[in-house]
Structures are given as C-alpha cells and as structure tokens.
Write a structure and sequence with these properties.
single chain, Rossmann fold, six-stranded parallel β-sheet, 36% helix, eight-stranded parallel β-sheet, alpha/beta, binds NADP nicotinamide-adenine-dinucleotide phosphate, TIM Barrel, 19% strand, 19 strands
C-alpha cells in the first residue's frame, strides 16, 4: 500500500486535496498537520474523511513546520487518537508520553536527515520498546549500500516496519519497501510538493513503478548513473514491462563514480538481474565482467549489463546496434556499383561526416568503420578528434571546415541543439544538401534545429528518439529474452519528452 503525504496551508485545500486523492485511488493519506497555517481543526479534517489517515505533526527539528508549543502538539496528537484517526505518528522521544488510546495504531518513528547510521538494528530495538503497531525508520542514504542495509532491516524486523532511505540514493528503498515486508511506503500528493528528499509522487509510485504489484518474485533492473534523476530509461523500461505483463521493475540507481562494482554486488544481493549503464560508468562495466558482447572491446565502453543463460554477467553496447539500425533504415537505395564494391552493408562506400568525439561518437564511429563507411570526424576540440580518429583509423576535418566536407551522411554526436539551447545547431543550414542523410543523436527535443532545417532542405532524417528507443529495446531483449514492444516504448518516450518541455 502507498501512504500519500498531504501538506497544505489551508484547511479548505487540505480537505479538497484529500477528496481528490481518494478519487485518484489513494488508500491511505498522511495528514501533515504542521503544514497548516492556522491551528488544526481535527473535527473538520477527520469528519467524513474519504480514506483512512495517518496523523503527523512534525517539529522544525524534524524538518517539520509546526510553529506552536510542544505541549500543544502533543495535545493535538492525543486528540487525533480520541477522534479515531487510524494511525498517529509519534517520534521516538514522545512515544512514551503519549499512551495508546482506542483503535488508533501507533507509528513510532525515527528520522535522520544526515545519514543512515551504522546501528540501524539498535535504533529499531529502541523504537520497538515504545508499544508500536508499526516502527518507522527513515534515514538519508549517502550511498547505494544504505538501501540494502535498510531493506534487510525491514525484512528481518519482528514488528511491522516501514523503513526506507531519503535522497536520490534512497529511491530504490522507497520503491522496494513492500517487497521486504513494509506495510506501506510513502509518496507525495504532488510531484512539485515533496515533503522529504527523494520522495516520489503518488502516481509515479503506483503507475510507473507499480508499487502494489511488486512482490518477493519481482525481478529488479535499473539504470546505473550519476546523476540519474533526469534519466528517461525507467519510463521506457517500466512501460515495456507493464505492457508485456512481466513481474519486473526498473529503478533509477544512483551510483557515484568509482563505486560501480561495489554497488552492483550490493544490488545483486537484492536480486538485480540487469541494468542500463551510463555516465560515468560506461568503462567501469568492462572491468566488472570479462564477458563482452560484439563490439564492446573495440568501442571500449558498454551501456548494458545482463545475465546470460548460465547466470553470468555480460556487458553489451546497445547504442552501437541502435545507431546503425536507425541510420541504415534511412539510407537511400544503393547503386549497383556501390553494392558491387561491398555487398554486405548499406553503409559501405558512403562518405560520413561525424560531428563530436565523445562517448556516442566513439560507438557510432566504430560502427561506420566496421561496415565500410568512409568516415571523417570533426570536433570543436581538435586534439580529441585526433585521438578518436587514430583509434578508428579515419580522417579529421577541422571544425571550421566541416561545411566543406561534402558528405553523404551527417551525424551529430555533439550536444549542440539539446534542450534548453534548442535554437542552436552544429551545422549551418546552407551546408545541408538535398538527399543528404542527417542523423541527430539528440533526442530532447526530437525535432532539433538541425533536423528541422534538414527536413526543409529535403534531406533524409534520423532522430535521436529512434536511436534511444532502439538501444532501450535491445536492452529489453537482453533482459527478457523476448522482442521489445517498440511502439509502446517510442510513444512513451515522445510523451515524456513533450511533457518535460511543457512542465
Ligand atoms: P560527451 O562524451 O560529453 O561528448 C560531447 C561532445 O559534444 C564532444 O564532442 C564535445 O566537444 C561536443 N560539444 C559540446 N558542446 C559543444 C559546443 N558548444 N560546440 C561544439 N561541440 C560541442 O557526450 P556523449 O555521451 O558522446 O553524448 C553526445 C550527445 O549524444 C548527447 O548530447 C546526447 O544528446 C546524445 N545521446 C543520444 C543517445 C541516444 O540514444 N539517442 C544516447 C546518448 C547520448 P568537445 O570535445 O570540444 O568538448
């Protein structure tokens, strides 16, 4: 079950939001009385309440907004029990002075906004002495391992325990709490009104992560990155899992640079079955396992870690296949002469100008060379272009001369044109020629200035959305062994990109 935290400054709004939450399907709502700007009117808030409630009133020292005296606060919590609230939240230090009353259940809570202390079991044992129906332990996660310690605590507790970690590192523990026996987790009523760091919105928890259907058999996947909050991968993969009816969940896993192996081992102990890997870990994956697919070795980076049939970890680079597939679908029919020069691949013999020399350029450049394309690299920082060109065995074009390269295919692997700088392009409009293939790897926005101008000039275009969806689809196939619902993933990504721009 998800307990939705609700905090508003006016009674009228609190009541209206509570009603709206019930209509949206909330089953339990935490009324944060400390958020009200006037003295809480319990009669008004609890009469005809549309769902069971947890009554909570936090002091400033617990990061709450309560402005009146401590005596008044404790009187209010007692009154909530007398009024028959389903649960009251009592901090450890006040739990002994507020006795059990009626049918109201006692949540005895501990919060630590700085860290997840090493003595979690000891803290839990202390809380358990205060006659709790539920023990609640919420701590700040400063590393991926904190999630694992917290979930183990929840799993082993003798008293029903709501335990999770705050902050971006702690998101997995919020989503997986129920899998380890927590009676509920917390989410906020509105994504822009979080009441604790890292709190997810109710609909996100319910519909994206499908909290209520996560059970002991749910397989865990995720994206390992730092930062991870902006990642669209959880949207795509969870939409695909839900569409296929798979008992799998895909989480944002924030892992700092240098902690990749340690974090994977920790999440492995929770049953991690596979993950997407992005900055800054694309090279660290290669050290984690020596089982590498296809071109991983040559590219020197991987974006996927999955288990093969024998349960061994393998690293793959799905960007490579995704970029090539997306590009090849848009190439014009080849002439007989071109096919004769290399019958094996539609890229053979094409002049390709690639802008950029970062991680994506490296993977795509390798694909062009391996398939017989005549590659030229141009990058703002020439030295970086030269290093990549030496690695791939291709030409460097000075950044200033990129317009004169006369390529059949132009690929943008720079970040120029990416949201929010959407009115920039790495290539001038009058350098584009009719019939040229223009591939922009940027996916936010999908219609970059480069893509718009290329369409106006009657070029063939390939967008970063196509590449992004295909790399995720390929990962889905490696994770599940079945074909990906490509159209569902495409639609989900497009919706997410346009929603991000509206909000
Ligand atoms: P990266 O390693 O950081 O490389 C960034 C590249 O952009 C470098 O070549 C850099 O040139 C160039 N650049 C940045 N600002 C520039 C400017 N103002 N003018 C000219 N060049 C500039 O990044 P990456 O991982 O390769 O990603 C590159 C792009 O690929 C991203 O922007 C992203 O949108 C896209 N991408 C797409 C997908 C997909 O699936 N569609 C997946 C991943 C990434 P310098 O060397 O001079 O700094």
């Amino acid at each position: 079950m998800i307990c939705v935290s609700l905090g508003r400054t006016r009674h009228k709004m609190m009541l209206a939001e509570h009603e709206a939450l019930a209509e949206r399907g909330a089953e339990l709502v935490e009324l944060r009385l400390d958020w009200l700007s006037h003295s809480p009117d319990l009669g008004r808030l609890l009469k005809d309440r549309p769902t069971p409630v947890v009554v909570t009133c936090r002091r400033p020292r617990d990061k709450g907004l309560w402005k009146q005296s401590e005596d008044q606060r404790q009187t209010l919590l007692r009154a909530a029990m007398v009024s028959g609230a389903e649960y009251v939240d009592l901090e450890e230090d006040v739990a002994a002075s507020i006795s059990r009353y009626g049918a109201t259940k006692r949540i005895v809570s501990y919060h630590n906004f700085d860290k997840t202390p090493p003595n979690l079991e000891e803290i839990h044992a202390r809380l358990a002495k205060h006659d709790p129906d539920i023990v609640k332990i919420v701590t700040m996660a400063n590393s991926p391992l904190d999630n694992v310690r917290m979930l183990r605590l929840v799993q082993q507790a003798q008293v029903p325990t709501v335990g999770f970690c705050m902050g971006e590192f702690g998101i997995p523990s919020r989503i997986l709490a129920g899998r380890y026996g927590a009676p509920f987790t917390y989410a906020t009523f509105h994504k822009e009104r979080t009441m604790a760091p890292g709190q997810l919105a109710f609909e996100e928890m319910r519909d994206l992560f499908r909290y209520d259907s996560i059970d002991a058999n749910t397989e865990i996947y995720g994206v390992v990155a730092d930062p991870v909050a902006h990642s669209l991968s959880p949207l795509l993969h969870n939409a695909a899992f839900a569409h296929e009816g798979l008992n799998k969940v895909y989480l944002p896993l924030r892992v700092p640079k240098g902690q990749f192996a340690e974090a994977i081992r920790a999440y492995e102990s929770l049953g991690l079955r596979g993950c997407s890997v992005t900055l800054p870990h694309k090279e660290a994956v290669l050290e984690f396992t020596d089982q590498h697919d296809g071109q991983v070795e040559a590219i020197g980076a991987a974006n996927t870690l999955y288990r093969d049939g024998a349960g061994q970890w393998r690293a793959a680079n799905t960007d490579y296949d995704a970029a090539l597939e997306s590009l090849c679908e848009s190439l014009p029919e080849r002439t007989g002469e071109e096919i004769a020069s290399d019958p094996s691949h539609p890229l053979a013999g094409r002049k390709v100008l690639m802008l950029g020399a970062g991680g994506v350029a490296r993977a795509i450049g390798m694909g062009i060379i391996k398939n017989g394309g005549a590659l030229m690299i141009s990058n703002r920082t020439k030295a970086r272009a030269e290093v990549l060109a030496r690695h791939l065995g291709c030409l460097v074009i000075q950044w200033e001369n990129r317009g004169a390269a006369f390529a059949d295919v132009l690929i943008n692997c720079t970040s120029v044109g990416m949201h929010p700088k959407v009115d920039e392009s790495p290539f001038m409009e009058n350098w584009l020629r009719e019939g040229m293939v223009v591939f922009d790897t940027i996916y936010n926005p999908e219609r970059t200035l480069l893509i718009k101008q290329a369409r106006e000039r009657e070029c063939r275009t390939v967008t970063g959305v196509e590449m992004f969806v295909r790399q995720a689809a390929r990962q889905f196939e490696l994770f599940t062994g079945r074909p990906a619902p490509l159209e569902v993933m495409r639609k989900t990504l497009r919706q997410a990109i346009s929603a991000a721009r509206i909000s």
